[in-house]
Structure formats: structure tokens, C-alpha cells
Amino acid sequence: MALREIIILPDKQLRLVSNRIEKVTPEIRKLADDMFETMYDAPGIGLAAIQVAQPVRLITMDLAKKSENGETTPQPRVFINPEIISASEEKSVYEEGCLSIPEYYEEVERPAKVRVRFLDLDGKLHEEDAEGLYATCIQHEIDHLNGVLFIDYLSKLKRDRVNKKFSKAAKRAEE
Ligand code: NI
User: Fold this and answer.
1) Is 57 part of a structural domain of the chain?
2) Number of domains present in the structure of the chain
């Protein structure tokens, strides 16, 4: 496994629409392994392949919570070509963040429940109902595969402010 570099706003690659994965090749398995290492290292709970500059429809996620004794049992999950096939009318609001927009958090409203269809690393098809943090996280990550960021749901004022902040930071880093 290897750590990969996470690309940061305003990197234009974040706006790419990622390609479907036709076959789970050894390269895709290696990418998933690297994404887990990168995600745990960050640390984060979800990562889309485009965030490590790979425009393919692959997501890693781990929503494991700390148990009472303070230990966490990892629950790594892989989603290939994930699709939302239905969404509830009911909405919920979560404070979201993104490894590609570090240290910025804002509340976003999304459907509270979704049904998601995806392939696993063995190419097996799954359909699952997601709610709570799982619903929010899978919607956020699938958005990445379509070049959409959570800041797109904010007011123009807030979005302009965060875009400006990260553009300035990128310029400073170049100097
Ligand atoms: Ni994100």
C-alpha cells in the first residue's frame, strides 16, 4: 500500500466526471488499498478516487464508531460505480467537511434516506438502504464522481468566500 496525494480546491480535476469501471483489475484493487491508507492517514471517513487524481467511479468509506472501551474496529467499504436509485422526500442536515477542502465545515441539507446500488471489489452487485451518516456520506462521495463538491450547495456568498480563500492559499504555495 502507498499513500497518495489528496488534491485540494481549486484543483480543476475535482470538477471532472469520473469514468465507470468496466472491470475490477489489479490496478483498481491497488488503488482501493492506497485510498484506504490515504483516507485513514488523513484522517477521513470517505474518499473518492478523483480526490487522489484518478477519474474512476470508486469510493472508499469507513464509518466505524469508537466503542465504549475507546477502540475502533475498522469497517472498510468499497463502492464501485455507485448510483442513487431512490431518495426520500424527507431531508436531514449534517455538518459536512471534505479532505479536498481541508478545515472547512458547513451544514448541508440532503435526502435523509437513499437506496444505493454498487459493485464490490469482487464485481458483485449490491443494493442497500442508507440513512444517517451513511446516507450523507455516500451522497457526498457520489457527488465527487460527478464533479460536484459540497460547497456547491451553499449560498453563493459562502461559496465565493471559500473559493477565494483556497485560491489565495494555492497562489501563496506557488510563490
Ligand atoms: Ni469530499
Assistant:
1) yes
2) 1
Judge contact between 68 and 43, C-beta under 8 A. Answer: no
Does residue 5 lie within any of the structural domains?
no
For the chain, helix, strand, coil in percent to 5 are: 35, 30, 35
- For residue 31, what is the domain's CATH number? 3.90.45.10
How far, in Å, is the centroid of ligand 1 from the Cα of 49? 10
Q: Cell for 67? A: 466503542
Question: What residues have a C-beta under 5 A from ligand 1, the ion?
Answer: 98
Domain assignment of residue 103, given as a range: 12-174
- Residue recorded with cell 473518492: 48
| Per-residue pLDDT of the chain in tens (175 residues, 90 and over written 9) | 799 999 999 999 999 999 999 999 999 999 999 999 999 999 999 999 999 999 999 999 999 987 778 888 889 999 999 999 999 999 999 999 999 999 999 999 999 999 999 999 999 999 999 999 999 999 999 999 999 999 999 999 999 999 999 999 999 988 8
- Which is catalytic among the residues 96, 141, 174, 175? 141
The predicted model scores a pTM of: 0.95
Cα–Cα distance, 120 to 1 (Å, whole number): 19
C-alpha 12/C-alpha 17 separation (Å) is 11
